[in-house]
Amino acid sequence: MAPLDPHNTAYYTVYYTVQGNQHSFRIRVEPTFSPADIGPEIEQLFGNLDDNLYATTIDFVTFNANGSDVSVPVTTSADGLTFGSGAGTTLTEPQYIDFVGRSSGGRRVKFTIYGINDLGGDFRIGATEFASVTAVLAQLAAAEGAWLAIDGLQPIWKQYANTGLNSYWQRQQRG
Predict the structure, then answer these.
(1) What is the reported pTM?
(2) In-domain check, residue 30
């Protein structure tokens, strides 16, 4: 399958800080999905994960229109909100959770959230193992116009979340 232009869809990039490090992820959306629409999606996502996050702050959000490589800062209801609790340690900085899906067009979609405070028993959390994962998967399944794959189609999300330790952040700890 030929790769698609990364700017094939409109998308928002969410910047957040956890354990002193700023991270980001994209939410691909239909072109009519406004900043007023994306704020509640971000709030719901982090609210669903709240019990399983170290203290996390939503810094800001940017928007890229379909076909554009220009990011424009936008104001959303999620800006400045905090979720989770606890500071974690340098050993927990590489911990993440990610959610994976695939569109009917065959395109894979994934997003990663750092600052997870529980990796589960085998680095995979089933849909019913953690209430937070159950809630996020329900949010993704119910989404209309957001959380799209790169081909602009609504994905079918895997009924689990992967957890792990990111090797880049592990190397950062080694100095």
Answers:
(1) 0.96
(2) yes
Is 4 contained in some domain?
Answer: no
- Can you give the residue range of the structural domain that contains 15? 10-174
**Structural domain contains residue 72:** yes
13 vs 35: CA distance, rounded Å: 11
Residue type, 156: I
Give how many domains the chain has, as a whole number.
1
Give pLDDT, residue 12. Answer: 98
CB contact set of 58 (below 8 Å; sequence gap of 6+): 14, 15, 16, 42, 46, 78, 79, 80, 81, 82, 83
Q: Provide the CA 40 distance to its chain's centre, in angstroms.
A: 14
46 and 79 in contact (C-beta within 8 Å)? no
> What pLDDT band is residue 171 in, cutting at 50, 70 and 90?
confident
